[in-house]
Amino acid sequence: MLSKELLDILACPKCKGDLIYYEDKDILVCPRCKVYYPVEEDIPILLIDSARPLEELEKVPQGGQT
After folding, report:
1. Domain hosting residue 30, numbered range
2. pLDDT tens-digit profile of 16-66?
3. Helix spans in 1-66 (H)
4. Number of separate domains in the chain
5. Domain for residue 64, yes or no?
6. Is 36 inside a domain boundary?
7. Is the CA virtual torsion 24, 25, 28, 33 positive or negative?
8. Which end of the chain is more exposed for a tag (fewer CB within 10 A), N or C?
9. For position 14, which CATH number holds?
């Protein structure tokens, strides 16, 4: 889980816009760029090359679903 202090200072590396943290999926979403960034072991991977299109989220398995 990311701390509120960290979330307050994080920004999209591409557009410098606000990011929204989805704790259940462990991702940070940039609604402006329509991409998400993974969070691995509580470390946000905010590299432009690691951004994935929001459309891919539909392919990510949800917890508890098969």
Report:
1. 4-57
2. 999 999 999 999 999 999 999 999 999 999 999 999 999 998 765 555 443
3. 4-9
4. 1
5. no
6. yes
7. negative
8. C
9. 2.20.25.10
CA pseudo-torsion sign 46, 48, 49, 53:
positive
Residue 64 CA to residue 66 CA, distance in Å, equals 7
Distances (CA, A) of 34 to 7, 13, 24: 18, 13, 18
- Phi and psi of 65, rounded to 5°? -100, 150
Instruction: Report how far residue 39's alpha carbon sits from residue 35's, in angstroms, rounded to the nearest whole number.
Output: 13
**pTM of the model as a whole:** 0.83
Backbone angles phi, psi at 14, to 5 degrees: -85, -55
| CA atoms lying within 13 Å on the CB side of residue 62 | 3
What does the alpha-carbon distance between residue 23 and residue 9 come to, in Å, rounded to a whole number? 17
Residue 62 located in a structural domain: no
